[in-house]
Each structure stands twice: as C-alpha cells, then as structure tokens.
Amino acid sequence: MNIQYEEKDIILQVENLSISYGEKVIIRDVNFIERNVVRKEINQGQVVAVLGRSGRGKSTLFRALTGLVKPSSGKVLIPDYSQAPSNGMQPAKEVEEGDVGFVDQKYTLFRHKTIYDSLTFALRKSGEKGSEKKEKVMKYLIEWGLEKVKDQYPNELSGGQRQRVAIIEQLLSSGHYMVLDEPFSGLDIGNIQNARQSFKLIENGHDLNTIIFSTHDIELATELADSIYVMGYPRLDDGSLGTVGTIVRHFDLKALGIAWRTEFTQDHLELVKEIKSAMLAS
Amino acid sequence: MNFKLWVKPFENLAKKDRFTISILWVAMVLAYWLITTAGEKKFFPTPLQVWQGFAALYSEGLVVHIGSSLWLCLQATVISIVVSLVIAYSYPIPLLRPLSRAMSQLRYLPLTGITFYLTILVTNARTMQVWVLVIFMSLYFITSLLAVIKDIPQEEIDHARSLKCNRWEILWEVIVKGRFDYVIDVLRQNLAITWMMLVTVESILVAAGGLGVLIKNSDKFMNHGRIFALQIVILLVGLSIDYTLNTTRKSLFRYSKFN
C-alpha cells in the first residue's frame, strides 16, 4: 500500500550549477529541485541521497550546497524565511555560508571546546537568552543520549558520539538544512543504527528539515532516502564517457512507493540493482 | 626475562624489562666513566673532580648564576612569544602573509651579522643579550608556528564557516584558541635551541653572570671538573624547563593528547 503524501513549495533548487577549480571543471550543469513533502499526522522532513562512484564530484556538490564554495556558474536557491511570502510563495535566496549545516566524514568539531560549550557556541547568533540556550542544549543532549559526555572534549568521544554532536551543532546553528558527507563510513553496525535513529529524529523533528547525504551503501540509501540522485560522468554523443560530474539519474522513492517503509523489501532490491547499473554506466 | 626479545625490532617489552634496560645503560655509562678516568691519561675528569667542581661552583654562587640565566631566558622568551605570535597569526591575512614567510626565511641569516647591527642600535649589553636571543628565538619560533598553522586541516576551517563564523572568528577560534596548546609545545622545542645559545650570548656581557659565563671562565683555566659539572647543571635545568612546560600543557589543556 502506497503511503499518501503531498508535495508543496520548493525547498531546494539547484540551477545549472557548475564548479571549476582553476582550469579543471569538477561538476557541470547540475540541476534538481526538491519540494517540501507533507504527510498526514506526521512531521515529514526530506531525506535526499546522492550516490555515485568516487571522484564524480559529490563532495564538491556538497560544498556548493553549503555555500562553502562559490559556483563558477549557476546557483543554489533555498527559501528565504526572513521575508514574508508574496503571492503565497516564499521568496528564494542564494545559499550562503552557515545557511546549510555541514557534517564532514571526520565529524569535525572544535578540538578545544567541550561538547556543552560547542553546542552553546552554535547558538551564539540565535538571539536567545543564556537560560534559553542552556535549556535547548540540555534538551538536545538528553534526547540524543549525550548528557553524560557534555563536559568531555571531542577526542574523548567515540565516533558515533562525535557524529551526533556534529549533527546537533549544525541543527542548532543552521536550522532546517543538513548536508552529511558519507555519514556511515567508518561506523560499526551499532553506530550505523544510532545514525539511522539520528536521521529519524531530524526527519520527524520538523516538516522543513531536509537531510542531504552521500554514501557508498546503496541498500542503506534506499532504506533511508525519499529521493536519490546518482552523480556520474554522462555518456557523450560519440558514446564515450565524459570527464565532468553531473546528475545522471534521479529516483523519486515517494513516487515509486518505496519511501518511508519500515522494512527492506523486494522493491528496494530492484531499485538497488537499477542504481548500481546507473552508477557503473557513469 | 626473555633476553632474545630485547634485540627483536618493534617488540613491545614489559615495564619491568624497559626499567631494567634503562638501569643497565646508566650502569654502563657510569662504569665507562669510572674505568676511563682510572688511569694516568684521561679524556674526562674523574667523578671526584666533577664533584669538587660542583662544590666550588656552588660556593661561588651557582644558584645566582642559574637565576641570572633563567631570567635572561624568561625576558627573551616573553618578548619573542609576543612578536612571533603576532607575525605567525598574520599568516592567514593575504596582505601580511609575505611578512610572516620572509621572517621565517630569515632564520638562515648568520647570528654574527645580526649582532653587528644590534651593537649599533643597542648600547646596553644586557639589552643586547636579550635582543640577540629574541631575534634568534623568534625566527625559529615563527617557522614552527607557521608549520602548525599550515597543518590545520581544511575541514576545521569549513566546520567553523558552517557555524556562521566570520573570517576573524575563524582566526580566533580555529587558529588562536584551537592551537594554543601547540604554542606551548613549539615554545618547548625552541627553548632547547635557546638554552644551547646561552653560552654564546652570555659571553657578550660577563658582568651580568649566568651559566654561560661560568663555563667560559672554567674553559679559560682548563678546569675540566667544573666544565663537566656545569654541563650537567645546564642539562638538568634545561630538562626541568622542558618537563615543566610539557606538564603545564597537559594539565592546562586536557584535550591536548599529542606527545
């Protein structure tokens, strides 16, 4: 049975995005749109997976999505919630540093700050009072099972704990958007389970919460994401493989009726096969 | 005890074995010293001569001289740290980057040339001692600090940027605050070089005293016992400074786990 949902306003639009480092073009003409998904009686955020073989420009795309690198051409647009809607539409703005949270593969944190201090620091521009910040930080620490390590430094935490702290930090600072570069690499099975629960916490925390992540675990991507993009080198007119990364396939798991299922099914398996063949062909 | 393991490369020995090896080496060094100084002709002074040299130095105010050397070092270190940090922290600013790079390259300048110009600028000999040490120390200090800054992974800069830090906040949080423990370690490494420089620098002004002056005087009279005793004192004071700085770093910065 398909799960009912509605697609509302655009929450992320990538328009003709190209990025070059000097003469070297890394990604070219990347285009995609993600809309706010609404489900009855549940806060449903968006989970987008970006898959692709190594060197196809996933990390570069992520740096552009987070505003850490300026596009050579094209733009990344998100709704500007600081402005009032006009004609029922939220005005859009180009993404800037800090608008979109970013958790890298190493779960980088400030090495000289305790977990509590790091999270409080992430809230420094929120405009909230000291007591409100403390309450908010403690709420997250308890909810994410980190209250016992709040006075520890990053190098005293396990990989899983570091990842959770890095995610909360970005949630507190950036709001609804979160980009995670290979969040499951280097984690053991228990920590992967914790990371999946973290995804659920974010996803169901707010309608507008949007996670964009990359992984080499295709099965896991089909289980977690509601939208999957495959990045690769496109086939050129002469049949040869190009050398610049772009989006080569999109799988809308909502439309396919696979998204948000609680179990891994035969449909997931079929999709995995299709994704694998798209990846190998690009 | 399995003695075969003692010569097996990369073998992790038990604490008891490691302790035994250390004791063995100390005993061998002492034995070598006693044996080689037992005859008529000897390269090193006998332990008794060193002890007598040490006693003579103590009665001549060894503690005061150690104090003088430490005070000179402290003055030079404080000035050097301030100057070096300002120059090193300016490295991420494109306009000032050539300055910090150039200061690091100047370490290849010979000390004699520098002292020549300093004698023109500075008239007071004690000030001269301090500034020779400051210049010498700063050039190495800047080089080491720049290496620390260049080693900061891009991920740490990006992490701060993703948390809406402006560029000055990144400089403050990632480079200044985030690497303060490294500054102490860099200081520790460079103090070893400065400590070695004492003999040369303290010879500029004999009246100010110091361990360097004591060595120079002992050298003049070929007093081997005193020279040897002084070398041991200088080594022990240097090691104490090293230990103090390392312990300070580890106790002040719990997150500082290197070394």
Q: Which residues of chain A sit in consecutive blocks of at least 5 with pLDDT less than 50?
A: none
Largest interface: A-B, 26 and 20 residues
Helix and strand run of chain A? EEEHEEEHHHEHEHEEH
Q: What's the name of the CATH homologous superfamily of chain B?
A: MetI-like
End-to-end separation of chain A in angstroms reads 33 Å
Q: What is the overall silhouette of chain A?
A: globular
Count of distinct strands of chain B:
0
The helix/strand order of chain B is HHHHHHHHHHH
User: What would you say the CATH architecture of chain B is?
Assistant: Orthogonal Bundle
Strand percentage of chain A, roughly? 25-35%
Known CATH architecture of chain A: 3-Layer(aba) Sandwich
Give the helix tally of chain A. Answer: 7
Beta strand count of chain A: 10
Ordered list of secondary-structure elements with their pairings:
The complex is a heterodimer of chains A (about 280) and B (about 260).
Chain A: E1 6-21, E2 24-38, E3 46-52, H1 58-65, E4 73-79, E5 92-94, E6 101-103, H2 115-122, H3 130-143, H4 159-174, E7 177-180, H5 189-203, E8 210-214, H6 218-224, E9 227-232, E10 246-252, H7 266-280
Chain B: H1 15-36, H2 47-59, H3 62-89, H4 97-105, H5 111-121, H6 125-150, H7 154-162, H8 167-177, H9 180-202, H10 211-220, H11 224-252
